[in-house]
Amino acid sequence: MCGIIGYIGDKKASEILISGLSHLEYRGYDSSGVALCCDDKTYIYKAQGKLNNLVEVLKTKEDICSKATKGIGHIRWATHGLPTTLNAHPHTCNCKNFTLVHNGIIENYQELKEELLSYGCIFQSQTDTEVAAHLIAHEYGKTHDLLKAMQNAVKKIKGAFAFCAIHNNEPDKIVVAKRNAPLIIGVGEGENFIASDIPAIIEYTKKAIYLSDYQVGVVKKDSIQIYDDNGNLVINKVEHLPFEAMAISKMGYKHFMLKEIHEQSDVVRNVLSGKLIGHDNKINLDEFKLTQEKIKNITRVQIIACGTSLHAGLVGKYIIEKFANIPTDVEPSSEYIYRDTIADENTLVIGISQSGETADTITAIKQVKEKNAHIAIITNRADSTMARLADSLLPVNAGIEVSVAATKSYMAQLISLYMLAIYLMENKGITKFDNEIKKIKQELIELPNKIEALLENTDNIQKIAKKYSSYKDFIFIARGINFPSALEGALKLKEISYINATGYGAGELKHGPIAMLDENMPVLAILNSGIVYDKVLSNCEEARARQAKLIGVADYIADKDKDLFDDLIIIPPVCDLLSPALNIVVLQLLAYYIAEYLGKDVDQPRNLAKSVTVE
Ligand code: M6R
């Protein structure tokens, strides 16, 4: 979603702002803008569409770009008002002395706008951000102090915000504030940075201060001062940023998505490292903070997540119920919020999120935290808002995921859920699965090699992708533990190729979706050699009888059954319970190559954002 960058120092601000915004592009956006300061004036440049359009505008402003050593920048993902140049940030006030960029949503913007209109404020855009700009500028009119103006204004604002503000009368500073939206201050020498996420500044500094909710900061080129909501000066720790600049390079791959798909074997090794040491040993999960006694008292598990993370949660339900014998519900966070959910101190709530910043999941977690449930967070961002809400933080350490379509983070979430399910089982003293678990642990250890084997030869998948890339609709079917694989495979395809793809439990096909089947609706069936093989095969027969083209994804297909399929993708042999971790690699590749044949913007699909920070 939206992204913020700010710079104050001696270097060319325009270059740092554009480079920072380019590293936030992956989050999804529809317009961009910068405000550059020199000679006590502020120059605002904006463009609709890709960041390159803004770069072209700046090429015509070389005089300003060469002089400006302070500036703020933004990429916008439209919430209030169309994705136009006018609505792009930065926004300003009547006298144009004050300039603001903003991430988040001002919930009471209508009310504030009416009040500001009565003071004579003139609005140019349809955005809620412009309301905040006029409000802070109005407060400046009373205080003549940018810090005080920000402190007063944020008290009147309801909603979520990360603000980065400048005023022509105070050229030595940038003032920042945040509530329920991330903002960090990158610490440099003789220069400082502001960003909504680490990739924007990682090439310049590895030291940063995380601003907390309700704090306001004054950033100068050689000092940073932070104030709490009572106006007291506070000291926030300077933290070491966890990423290498390398992590945001494509490393020779055509797209980040392809690179991230190929990183999945190492991702599995990372998650297993230190937790699974040989198939005879118990799972070691020091990050999980519930005592054995409390684990034995858990009466229910609730998994809350969105999108791909939700699909990982569905696999989690299957294995937690099977091994740990605890009833487990999985629900999209956006629905969980609006139910009177039942939870108490014996409830384990597992929040799953790649970004750790998904607004729906944060709200759901905050809501259930009040009921004293134990909150475990599985996230790729140990520095995120969600991580800070966790009683038990289970970081998946998949490395930064740049492609909007989640791949390696899903793999990391799956493996973490296997670890957690087995850990719960072992700590409850359940022994009846001991032999099966030994086999699964051994297969988990072998999994990275199998992923690598699969990735070594993708010719067949590429050929099938090309063959089916002109279809407009797709159905994915599976049963049991692979039902979520069907949902995730369909989500991947629609996200990056815009083909209408839907995942169904294979048994549900005959209860409605079968009506859509004909030669124009390919069916992709996931059939592993486990308990559901025969049943999914019957569902494939039903599809075939309606002339649907059939693609099978399986670790084994009996010779007698092979003719049923138009195309087959055979994965390395794997036990049924671990098969989602291999099947998904096939489905990710299929989606990738279809989108690539169609010439789509694979890493930044239209309308999508990497981190969805609005409810
Ligand atoms: O960061 P999160 O895992 O909380 O994000 C949840 C969804 O927004 C995310 O999984 C989304 O569905 C991705 N685009 C999937 O590829």
Number of strands: 25
CATH overall fold name of the largest domain: Glutamine Phosphoribosylpyrophosphate, subunit 1, domain 1
- Measured distance between first and last alpha carbons: 12 Å
What percentage of the residues does DSSP assign to strands (E)? 15-25%
The named CATH superfamily of the largest domain? Aminohydrolase, N-terminal nucleophile (Ntn) domain
CATH architecture of the largest domain: 4-Layer Sandwich
Radius of gyration: 26 Å
How would you describe what is shown here?
The protein folds into 3 domains: 2-248, Aminohydrolase, N-terminal nucleophile (Ntn) domain (Glutamine Phosphoribosylpyrophosphate, subunit 1, domain 1, 4-Layer Sandwich), CATH 3.60.20; 256-452, Glucose-6-phosphate isomerase like protein, domain 1 (Rossmann fold, 3-Layer(aba) Sandwich); 459-597, Glucose-6-phosphate isomerase like protein, domain 1 (Rossmann fold). Helix content is 36%, strand content 22%. The chain has 19 helices and 25 strands. The strands form 4 sheets. The protein has an 8-stranded antiparallel β-sheet. Strands 5-6-7-8-12-13-14 form a 7-stranded antiparallel β-sheet. A 5-stranded parallel β-sheet has the order 17-16-18-19-20, sandwiched between helices. The chain starts with a strand and ends in an 18-residue tail after the last helix. It binds 5-amino-5-deoxy-1-O-phosphono-D-mannitol. The site of 5-amino-5-deoxy-1-O-phosphono-D-mannitol has 16 residues, from helix 10. 5-amino-5-deoxy-1-O-phosphono-D-mannitol binds at residues 306-309, 353-355, 358, 361, 404-406, 495, 608, 611-612.
